[in-house]
Each structure stands twice: as structure tokens, then as C-alpha cells.
Amino acid sequence: MEAMELLANRVSSPRLKGEVPRTVIETMVRSAGRAPDHAQLAPYRFLLIEGEARQRLGDIFVEAEEMAGESLDEQARAKLRAKPLRAPHILVGIASLAHHPKVPEQEQIITAGIALQSCLQVAFAMGYGGMWRTGGMAYDLHVANQLGLKENEKIVGYLYLGEVDGALKTAKGADPEEKLIIWE
């Protein structure tokens, strides 16, 4: 796929199935190294969750909601447990923040997000689908602890990956007349 076609047409794939070969996932992670990175800190890492580990992640999601004081009935528990099962692979993007006199944490979080976006673009370019998800489970301390994050780390997103299942929506680009303002 040509670069401009990729950039103009990538869309999220909410329905995913099948398998993404490990070589493709490794290529995705290698692409993360091209994210803009002030001081070359590489302030990111990734966790790959697949197979039965997705079920454990669903259990962690339920634990987190209950620890937050949510009262969940069995239907709500089942729905929460099923979230990680929506795709065969989940690549968790993690910002690994370092104290640096010239690179604030915000910049490092942005770099980690761009690194994860690069992974999503590579997946699309190689014929696979992806869906970036966040929500409360991306910001929950219990989830972070159970996934082994350190105190200086934050989840920037869950990248659900797989083969596209069904038709994709048509990409709608940003309208420059709406989004671009010339400052004088």
C-alpha cells in the first residue's frame, strides 16, 4: 500500500478475527522507533496479550470495577470479561516516563502515543485491522499493577489487532477549511 493511500484511508476495525503473524507484530513494534522522540528516550514499551491471557485481562477488568466500588451484576461482569476477547491480539502501549530536564512527561506520553499509532498504521499497511481503545481500564491503577507496570508508567492505549471481519467504513479525512486556521 502506498504511503499516501495508507495515511488517507486507514480506519478502525471494530470486528477482528484470525491471527496476526508474530513477524507482523514485530514489524509493528520496530516501526515505533520512528516516532518523534526528543532526546531519544524511547519512552514506551508494549505488552502483547493473546490466547488465554485475554481471559485473565477480562478478570482484571472486573476486579478493577469492583475495587472502584461498582456494583456489577452477572451480565455486567460477563460483558466486562468479554471485552478483551473482541480481538485475537491486544498490544498494550505503555508510556515509560523518565525524569529529564528538557523532555517533560507530556512529551514522552505523546511519543508513546505516536509509537502506538505507528503500530496501527503498519498493521493496516500489511493488511490487518486494528482498533485503538482506552476508557477507564486504560487509566485504572489496579489494571496497571496487574499488568506489571512500574510507578513511572502509564497505559496510552489498547491496540486490538486481527484480520478484518466484515466491511470497513469509508475513511473521512479532516476538512482543511474547518481544521486549518492561518494565524497572522
Textual characterization of the structure:
This protein is an alpha+beta fold and 184 residues long. The protein has a single domain, classed as NADH Oxidase (3-Layer(aba) Sandwich). Helix content is 41%, strand content 18%. It has 8 helices and 5 strands. Strands 1, 2, 3, 4 and 5 form a 5-stranded antiparallel sheet that branches. Helix 2 crosses helix 5. The protein starts with a helix and ends in a 5-residue tail after the last helix. The mean pLDDT is 95.
SSE layout and pairings?
Blueprint: H1 3-9, E1 16-17, H2 22-31, E2 44-50, H3 53-67, H4 74-82, E3 89-96, H5 105-125, E4 129-133, H6 136-139, H7 141-146, E5 153-164, H8 176-179
Antiparallel strand pairs: 1-5, 2-3, 3-5, 4-5
Highlighted features:
184 residues; alpha+beta; NADH Oxidase; five-stranded antiparallel beta sheet; 8 helices; 5 strands; 41% helix; globular
The fold-level CATH name is NADH Oxidase
Overall 3D form: globular
How would a textbook summarize the main sheet? 5 strands, antiparallel
Per CATH, the superfamily is NADH Oxidase
* Highest CATH level, the class: Alpha Beta
Helix count, DSSP H or I runs of 4 or more residues:
8
Order of helices and strands: HEHEHHEHEHHEH
CATH architecture type? 3-Layer(aba) Sandwich
What value does the average pLDDT take?
A: 95
Instruction: Supply the number of structural domains.
Output: 1
Helix coverage percent:
40-55%
Q: Low-confidence stretches at least 5 residues in length (pLDDT < 50)?
A: none
* Beta-strand fraction estimate: 15-25%
Instruction: Give the structural class.
Output: alpha+beta
